[in-house]
Amino acid sequence: MADEDKQDKKPKAKTSAKAESKPVKTDVKKVRGKSATAMKDLRDLAQTPQEDSVEIAKAAASKAKAQEPSVPGKREPKIDSFGRSYGTGRRKDAVARVWLKQGTGKVTVNGRDQGIYFGRNTHRLILNQPFLIVNRVGHFDVICTVKGGGLSGQAGAVRHGLSRALENFDPEMRPALKKAGMLTRDARIVERKKVGKHKARRTKQWAKR
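Above: the chain's sequence. Below: its structure in token form.
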């Protein structure tokens, strides 16, 4: 029994000696990280209350600036070297190019006077609506070319182009024209014909027998 006790004690002594002989490994990265955080804490402590107040004021100013509503830039007149402003108008299949400048109220459409080109009073009334809205009848000379569509669509296209040209000549006219709907392109067009029908919606005559 005594011999067995001696044998048990010997390996224990060996293992303890091995454990003592092993060198202790230190993680360099962890040590560096801890030192860096310590330095950062020291810097934060070193900041004065005055610096903190300055940073808070800067943050508040930037926040207030971000919350401010964006003000659109002021519109400027678009007039060429000849004193003309330009506008493109569209209605149905018609497209009109309109130039206007200060004058006596003469309107020329495709090289002809508006009274000759648009024989119906309704078409001439449609064309002159922008001048009536901004109360500038007889203040501008208009030269325009229009193509495509019929007379009704062409009158609407000239009116649309004329409204845009007036806006470019004097941006202060924009609110009145916009409120009246003169600057909006009328998207109504002829509905397409459907298969099995005479027209877009006209169906064939119904026979009872």
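The radius of gyration is 43 Å.
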